[in-house]
Automatic annotation (TrEMBL):
UniProt keyword annotations, A-Z: DNA-binding, Transcription, Transcription regulation
Residue spans binding DNA: 45-64
Protein name: TetR/AcrR family transcriptional regulator
Domain HTH tetR-type as annotated: residue spans: 22-82
Keyword DNA-binding among UniProt keywords: yes
Gene3D superfamilies per record: Homeodomain-like, Tetracycline Repressor, domain 2
Pfam families assigned: TetR_C_1 (PF02909), TetR_N (PF00440)
Keyword presence, tRNA-binding: no
Superkingdom of source: Bacteria
Length: 235
């Protein structure tokens, strides 16, 4: 797994752990990501984080107001990594699609357990504000007025995070469960009664392949096509 990015601790004075490591907000975020990826978000607590960084549980509160604040910071870290992976293209739609791909890639391909845990969270932090600013700006470049851009932003965010959460959740299942679910689609043609479900039976050979791979790229293209065809002004 690619190691989480570390950034300066925003001017906070660093403290040393029992092992001599400098404590900072970023050290706690690193530890939280590693815990989530290996054990799931439910294990996050002041004690598990303290054990991970080698400090007393109370040290956490020098940098965060609560364990939930750590999770929000983790969510903002995911967005920041995606922004680092993204670059603007010449056309606003290409830029917007590439931004969606960058965020999806971090949530699903790089940190799936963490992506599943934080996809529903609002951080209110710097990277989230950056991505809102970029997205609204790109939509305005496409000719959308402020109100319509806000509506389109909401729809795009829900599509992207919903898709990422769905796929990250599937990857979080055990290999045995994923294999069983995939087998159900592979065997669909044999199980569907043609007389009772003729449409499903006709589509079954295609679904057998389609349901075993991500639909993100085809869904993204569909969403972008609809966006380009939608009105630029609020009625």
């Amino acid at each position: 797994m690619t190691g989480p990015r570390r950034e300066p601790a925003g001017g906070r004075r660093r403290r040393r752990t029992r092992a001599g490591t400098d404590l900072s907000r970023e050290i706690y975020i690193d530890a939280a990501v590693n815990l989530i990826e290996n054990r799931g978000a439910a294990v996050l607590s002041a004690r598990t984080l303290a054990s991970a960084v080698g400090a007393d549980p109370s040290a956490l509160y020098r940098y965060f107001g609560s364990v939930d604040d750590v999770l929000r910071a983790v969510a903002d870290r995911m967005i920041g990594i995606a922004l680092d992976n993204w670059s603007r293209s010449e056309h606003w739609m290409d830029s917007l699609a590439d931004l969606a791909r960058a965020i999806y890639g971090v949530y699903v391909n790089e940190f799936p357990q963490t992506g599943f845990a934080v996809a529903t969270r609002t951080t209110g932090l710097d990277n989230e504000i950056r991505v809102v600013e970029l997205t609204i700006g790109l939509l305005r470049d496409g000719g959308f007025d402020d109100e319509t851009a806000a509506h389109r932003f909401r729809s795009l965010a829900d599509f992207l995070l919903g898709q990422a959460m769905l796929e990250a959740a599937f990857l979080s299942l055990s290999p045995e469960v994923r294999s069983s679910d995939n087998a159900a689609w592979q065997e669909l043609a044999e199980r569907v009664p043609h007389t009772e479900a003729p449409h499903a039976a006709a589509a079954a050979p295609h679904l057998r392949a389609l349901m075993l791979r991500s639909s993100f790229e085809s869904s993204l293209q569909l969403v972008m096509s609809g966006l380009d065809a939608s009105p630029r002004r609020a009625s």
